Amino acid sequence: MPVTTTGTYSTWTAALIITGSVLVTGCRPVSGPTSAGSPVRVEADAGLASALPAHLKKSGTLTIATDASYAPMEYKEPDGTIVGVDVDLGKAIAGKLGLRARFQDAKFDGIIGGIQAGKYDMSMSSFTATKEREKSVDMVTYFSAGLAVAVNKGNPKGIDPDRLCGVKVAVQTGSVSADDIKNRRNPECEAHRRPAIPGDGHRFELQTDVTTALVAGRDDAMISDSSVVAYAVKQSRGRIEQLGTAYAVDPSGIVVPKGDGRLTEAVQRAVQKLIDDGTYSRILTRWGVRSGAVAHADVNAAAH
Question: Of residues 20 and 219, which shows the higher confidence score?
């Protein structure tokens, strides 16, 4: 992503920032797939395919919205191809339903509205399943992830991940990370008469810009999904590090139009079949995120 530097940065620092951005956004996982295609073959389930809504049977294509800036879950390669954990899982789900998957890049905070408007059939974009989101869409849980805090290597500002009051923290707009600052961390800061996290967090539309802001030193910390932080740490080659352990661990959900029972049920059953036959585990293992595996796919099972 483009990086804006000021005159106070040395040439060496600017090069480091740009290199860090490329490392975070443009690399495959070391143990991940070696092609953009799905790493497994999936046989269609005739029963699931026959139960699909008529428009999907007719089109033969499942249009899936994703914010392709969230490596390793979904991101773009240099040639623009969208790849990632969710992409391979989405292709496997579509295959089980007898459909082709077509991923469409979209801004994260506009995806649910697009689902409601019928622009997309569903979304796989690392959405945390919450009761608030389940008021407007159905969510099929398929993964488990928490939040994590990252800082520059060596934690030069001496930041405590549990005490971020007054710290410049980068987050993605519309994310649970942003909600964590606005709804929990800053009210706690106020209650203890400490300075708030500025602006309820420094917000960016793309997760790649969040990471770049940290590497560039424009922010002192970032909060994101634990899987995203772990991947960014690895791809930054030591420039950033995670502080502490993951917290607020919750299920991630596939977003489906509210009340479209046939599609919601078909997606839930497809995910469960992929879990049961081992396809799901193989995909997660190839991307190095097996720790986020779940045993059951459920519908609207948010804890809070």
Answer: 219
Quick one: fold of 146-248? D-Maltodextrin-Binding Protein; domain 2 (3.40.190)
Please measure the distance between the N-terminal and C-terminal CA atoms of the chain and give it in whole angstroms.
34
Distance, in Å, from the CA atom of 87 to the CA atom of 102, rounded to the nearest integer, reads 9
Per the document, the length of the chain is 304
- Domain limits of the chain? 46-144+251-292, 146-248
pLDDT in tens, 196-254: 999 999 999 999 899 999 999 999 999 999 989 988 898 888 899 999 999 999 999 99
Looking only at the bridges linking them, the beta strands covering 100-105 and 61-66 are: parallel
46-144+251-292 and 146-248 share one CATH topology? yes
Mean pLDDT of 13-19: 32
27-73 pLDDT per residue, tens: 333 333 433 444 578 999 999 999 999 999 999 999 999 999 998 99
Q: Is domain 46-144+251-292 annotated with CATH 1.10.3720.10?
A: no
Which pTM does this prediction carry?
0.76
